[in-house]
Amino acid sequence: MGQGVSARGPVGRLMLRGGEGLTDLVDLKSANFLCVCSKQSSQLDLALDCWLITCPHVGEHLHSILPTCLLLTDDHVYANKVKGLQCLQHVASNVSRTDLNQYGQGAVIYKAVEHMVYLREPEIIPHLAKCLIALLSKTEQSPTSHSLTWNHFDDVLNIWLPSMEMEQKLVLREAYIENLNEFLQAMGLGSARWSRKLMLIFSDYCEQEHTREMSLKALLTFINSAWPRISSHFHSIVVILMKVIINIKTKGSISNYGTRPSGILVKQCFRALERLSNLMYRDFVNKIKENDDMADLYKLIMENEILSQSL
Hints:
By secondary structure, the chain is mainly α. The protein has helices at about 10-15, 20-30, 45-55, 60-75, 80-95, 95-100, 105-115, 125-140, 150-165, 170-175, 180-185, 195-205, 210-225, 235-250, 255-275, 280-290, 295-300, 305-310. The longest helix is centred in the C-terminal third of the chain and has 21 residues, at about 255-275. The relative contact order is 0.06.
């Protein structure tokens, strides 16, 4: 229960009632009780409102809850922006696609957070990404769709990918790459449009220990999602994976913490390449098998020695 909220008071009693108190809380909000975004907002209001929108099945109360969520995201205090994004993510996750789109509520939410895509703030980016993933997964086409029509997923990547490519601050690189895997999963086949930019980013981010594992996860998702483009980028992907293997094998180049997950992900990427581009994969394996200088690399790929290097 939020700070300053007494379980014995009327608000506390409503909160303790769980989902049954949702309607009553909405009534309190309609009476201007939950004015959390005013300049004089209290901790009580904020705690109550955050509890309210973390209740499941908020679809029927969307019209009452949404304005407060939007006001939070527009606050000048970043902590309130983050809270607002968490609230909107929960709303998008717990409202049906029909309810979200019926009165254009999804478009309203996107318009409210769209400008935040330009913010280079590490405390904002991960929460914004989660919010957009939850929202766009329902307002745009299904991830299983084969449509390549430009949509809001593309609008976001059009801003974020150049920023990721040029970013040098580690804290921002980690913030950007943290949810790229989930973003590409939600985007589906549309990620193929960004294959060239993504390959540059995968190559760069796999070089650093702090971003390697998350980048490999995103690369694996890209391989599986953008399958029509994989043959065109097969050699670039192999080069990225070989560099990771070399870094894993090089003693002292990476901590044991990062090596094991990275090794597993590299193996999964190779298996995905084998499945999607079998002839090119077989040709690659045969070439390194015949090259004595690549004997160790062949063993690492074919005999699962990637994993043993991390033990």
